[in-house]
Amino acid sequence: MTGFSHRFRLSSRMARLMAVSTFLSLGSVPAYAQVSSREGIALQDQIMELRQQLSQVQSSGASSSGSLPAPVAQGSQTSGASGDLVTQLLDRVNTLESQQRDMRGQLDELTNQLKEQSASLSKQMGDMQFAMQNGGAAAGTAAAASSHHEDAAASRTETSEKAAAQTPEGYLKAGNAALLKHDFSAAQENAQSAVSHGKGTAKVDGQYLLGQSLAGQKQYRDSAVAYYDAYKLSPKGPRAPYSLLGVSASLLALGDKKAACQAIGKLKTEFPSPTERVAKSTAVFSKQGGCS
After folding, report:
1. What is the spatial distance between Cα 224 and Cα 214, in angstroms, rounded to a whole number?
2. Would you say 257 and 290 are in contact if contact means Cβ atoms under 8 Å apart?
3. How far is CA 170 from CA 174, 198, 212, in A?
4. CA dihedral over 154, 155, 156, 157, signed as positive or negative
5. What is the pTM of this model?
6. For residue range 38-63, what is the model confidence (pLDDT) as tens digits?
7. CA separation for the pair 17, 67 (Å, rounded)
8. Reduced to 3 states, what is the DSSP secondary structure of residue 53?
């Protein structure tokens, strides 16, 4: 409103000046008329002042092609505020651009680090694969060698066991184990091998084992013969009384009590002081055969 009032007063003054100028140019008032009075002198002073102002206005108008000075905009304060806002926005844009440059730099740095780590990891994996391949080959060679040694040792052990089993003692051991399992056929086979290959005590033990294996198969006649052959091989040996008991038991199984009692009589005559086990078995068989 201040700018508008100023323009309005300026326009009114210019109108008055133009009117006075027109009046003066027509010569309606002579220069000398009524100038002696106080009012006239005052009016004359005002006229002169108005002429000077008009001259200044006309000079100013001529320099600006007759247009009035540009009025001050009503929102001048708003323009200042807008200028401040623009300045703030520019500062914010500059700040964001700076942050973006920093972030781009950090991103480039992280990308480089990732590339370096990837390359290092690839190298490590390659080294590990190489080591595993070489180590695996070495381990495979060592395992093969170890397996070969183990196989060789097992083969030697098996060969030794077979060699041991092919001795009279080995046959006796295998035969007695089969007898405990009631595998009488295997016991008979090993007993016959022991008798064929053995000498001395081994041969006697093999013959006694043959009688046991035949009795287990209920071949009592053959078992009686096998037991008697064991007795004949060593009449005074530790197997002799047991061999005579075996003859008696086989004959009782065949129902030949008379022959069984003869075997018991021979046992009592040749071994008057038998072991407790032999004595108990003799009493049992004597009772079964009705021996006197």
Report:
1. 9
2. yes
3. 6, 10, 18
4. positive
5. 0.47
6. 656 666 666 676 666 656 655 655 45
7. 17
8. helix
